[in-house]
Structures are given as structure tokens and as C-alpha cells.
């Protein structure tokens, strides 16, 4: 039981960090846990989705904080400037693609910068991330 609990926390933190600080390996952790057969597939998908979604919302919050201190969008690096323009043009639904490597974190940052509504942003981000983890899980069941 203790090993299962610590593995679940490891997955959660791996997913959280993958969505904030560093490019991650949460998909690899999820795949390993599923292939070992000790974990309920639905539970680990939910844990990974929550961790990754909360990490994305941390990035969203950093974008909102940055917008208060630095309202001029021209101060952003080019990657975040491109994401800001995409979110401005396409709207909140583009946050569904926050699971994509490289641009996903920038989309979340841009969503916060633009002060997109918190709950709808969270639900859209979470649905995209759930879809990604469900596909990874399906590949390793």
C-alpha cells in the first residue's frame, strides 16, 4: 500500500513539474506504472491529469502576475509573444492544446496574461491533458 501511495505522489509531482518548470517524463512514469499492473489505470490517468493541469494553472497564474507588473506585451520573449498572439486570435479554446510540447506552457502563460476566465480555462486545459494521458494509457494497457 505504501509503495502504491508513494508511486501515485511521484506521478503527481512528475506531471506537475512537467507542466511548469522542466520538460517532463510524466508520460514515461504513467506508462511504467500501467505496464507494471499494480495501479488502477483510471486512477493513474486522473492523478497525472490533475498534476499536469494544476501545473498548467500555475503557469497561467504566473502569466496573470506578469501582466500586472509588465503590461506591455512587447517585453515578452518571442515564444511567449507568439503564443499570446495565437490566444488573442483564437480565444480560450486554444488552451485545449496546452498539452503540446514547447508551445503548451506558453499558451497557458498567455491565457493568464490575457486574464482569460479561470474556471473555463482550467476545464479546457484539463480536458486536453486528460485526452493525452488517456491515449498514453491506452497504448500501454
Can you describe this structure?
This protein is mainly alpha-helical and about 140 residues long. The protein has one domain. It contains 6 helices and no strands. The mean pLDDT is about 90.
Write the layout of secondary structure elements.
Layout: H1 2-18, H2 26-36, H3 41-69, H4 78-90, H5 103-113, H6 118-140
Helix pairs in contact: 1-2, 1-3, 2-3, 2-6, 3-5, 3-6, 4-5
- Summing up helix and strand content along with how strands pair, one would put the structural category as mainly alpha
Order of helices and strands: HHHHHH
What would the principal axes of the Cα set say about the shape? Answer: elongated
Sheet-strand content, in percent, reads: under 5%
Low-pLDDT regions: none
Q: pLDDT average, as an integer? A: 89
User: How many helix segments?
Assistant: 6
Features:
141 residues; mainly alpha; elongated
Amino acid at each position: 500500500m505504501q509503495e502504491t501511495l508513494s508511486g501515485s505522489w511521484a506521478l503527481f509531482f512528475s506531471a506537475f513539474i512537467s507542466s511548469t518548470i522542466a520538460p517532463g517524463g510524466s508520460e514515461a512514469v504513467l506508462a511504467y506504472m500501467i505496464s507494471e499492473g499494480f495501479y488502477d489505470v483510471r486512477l493513474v490517468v486522473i492523478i497525472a491529469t490533475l498534476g499536469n493541469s494544476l501545473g498548467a494553472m500555475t503557469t497561467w497564474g504566473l502569466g496573470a502576475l506578469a501582466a500586472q507588473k509588465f503590461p506591455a506585451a512587447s517585453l515578452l520573449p518571442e515564444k511567449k509573444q507568439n503564443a499570446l498572439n495565437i490566444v488573442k486570435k483564437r480565444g480560450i479554446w486554444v488552451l485545449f492544446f496546452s498539452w503540446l510540447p514547447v508551445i503548451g506552457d506558453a499558451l497557458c502563460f498567455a491565457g493568464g496574461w490575457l486574464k482569460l476566465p479561470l474556471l473555463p480555462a482550467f476545464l479546457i486545459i484539463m480536458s486536453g491533458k486528460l485526452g493525452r494521458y488517456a491515449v498514453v494509457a491506452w497504448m500501454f494497457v
